[in-house]
Amino acid sequence: MTAIDLGLRQVVVESDTPILHVCFIESGLASMVAVSSDDEAVEVGHIGREGLGGHHVLLMTDRTPNRTFMQVAGTGIAVPVEHFMTIINNHKPTRDLLLRYVHSASLQLAHSALANARYSMQERLARWLLMCHDRLEGDNLALTHEFLGMMLGVRRAGVTNELHILEGIHAIRSTRGNVRIIDREKLKKIAGGCYGLPEAEYERLIGIPMSVAHRAIRIA
Questions:
Q1: DSSP classification of residue 193
Q2: Rounded to 5 degrees, what angle do the CA atoms 180, 184, 188 make?
Q3: Helix 145-152 and helix 121-135: axis angle, to 10°?
Q4: Which of 87, 134, 138, 173 is buried most, with the most CB atoms less than 10 Å from its CB?
Q5: Which residues form the HTH crp-type domain (predicted)?
Q6: pTM for the structure as a whole
C-alpha cells in the first residue's frame, strides 16, 4: 500500500490499458467516463472515498474502455494489482465486500442511464451535485460550468442557466470554478426519483452511508 497524491485531471485508470495498481480514493473526487470511437465522452460514474478506481479487475479483466480521472484533487492509496488479487482470491470476506461495491457502482451507472433518458436537465443537475456532495467534505464543490457540461453531456450555456435557477431558489451559490451547496434538501426535492436508490443500496450492502456528512454524524 502506497499513499499517493491525486492531482486535478490526473488519470487513475487509462482506457484500454492494463492497470498496475488499484486506487482507493481517500479524498477528492474521480469521474469514470465512457468515450466513443469518435471521442464523444460522458460521465458514467463517480468515485470518492466510498470506493476505488480500477474495480474492473474484480471481474477478472485487466483493462476497460472507460477512463477514470480526478475532477477534484485529493489523495489515495495505491495497491499493486498482483497483491490486491492475492487478497481477493484468498480472503472471501474481502472479496464479497468489494463485489458488493461493484454491484452498487453498476447500479449507479444504470440510474445515470435512467436519468439521462427520463429526467430533465434540472433534475439531472441536482442529482449530479448531490452525488458530488456525498463524496466530498464540506459544501464547496470545485467544479467549473464547462466541466459540468461535459459530465452531463450538454452545452455549457445550458448548465449555466440551470445553475442560475438553482441559485434563485437558494439551493446553491455558483461562482467561477465553485458550486456551494446551500440547501441539500431542496436539491433532493428537485432531483426526485433520479437520486437516492443507488445510495440506499450502497448503505444496505456496505453498512455505512454514502454521504460523507451522514457518515460523520453516525460516527459521532
A1: G
A2: 130
A3: 110
A4: 134
A5: 123-190
A6: 0.90
What digits encode the pLDDT tens for the residues 100-150? 999 999 999 999 999 989 999 999 999 999 999 999 989 999 988 877 887
Distance of CA 3 to the CA centre of its chain: 20
Q: What is the pLDDT of residues 137-171, one digit of tens each?
A: 899 999 888 778 877 778 878 888 899 999 999 99
Cell numbers at 89, concatenated: 482470491
Cβ atoms of 135 and 29 within 8 Å: the answer is yes
Which residues pair with residue 27 across a beta bridge? 75
Cell numbers describing residue 173: 451559490
- From edge to edge, which strands make up the β-sheet containing 140-141? 140-141, 178-181, 172-175
Residues 130, 145: Cα–Cα separation, whole Å = 16
Are 70 and 6 in contact, with CB atoms under 8 Å apart? yes
